[in-house]
Amino acid sequence: MAKIRVSYEYSEAEDKSIRLGLFLIVCGILSLFILCFCWLNPTLQNMQSKPANCTVISVRRVDEMFECVFTCGADCKGTSLYPCLQVFVNNSESNSIALLHYDEQQLVLNPKCSYVPPCERDNQKNKESVLRWQDYWTGEGSSQSFTCFFNQQRRPEDVLWKPSDNERVLLHCILWPIVSLLVGTLIVLLTICARSLAVRAEALQKRKFS
Length: 210
Hints:
GO terms for molecular function: calcium-activated potassium channel activity; potassium channel regulator activity. One of its GO terms (biological process) is detection of calcium ion. This protein is α+β, with helices and mostly antiparallel strands. It contains four helices and five strands.
């Protein structure tokens, strides 16, 4: 019995599905490389930060004022000023004096100051926010040691009060590219399976009426 051949071409919808799947696969691969280069490598370096015991040595405000950007609506944006507070601590691990920063983000934003307040339109509110932080470190915070975090290779003269949120960064570096790869692969496989089933169904239909 002669084998029945069925020619089957992709429909327009199937062609679009395969293109979408391939696009998602390519995006997943590219984003994985880009995110790993931009986020993963710096994050792995940040994860080398070690905890240490810190004690406050001195707290002072410098004369220089710094700018911050505030937003007060969709079309409302501007700059205001805040004073610079510097909290110097003794790092027990390196036995050296270091400048304390609230977290990694603020260290990058302003490496000269220990605290960058949430930017308000009113300069006085920014000053009051910094003064509250100053009152803490000259009062309650100065009387006891606390855990700080430092990286001897990257920033030996700086320590962080709050550790970096490395787990969340790593999750975003890996999760979304993998999701894009899986979704794209699933779309391509489902489209190919649908094509194969359609070919078999058509072959059975022709065999039945032949």
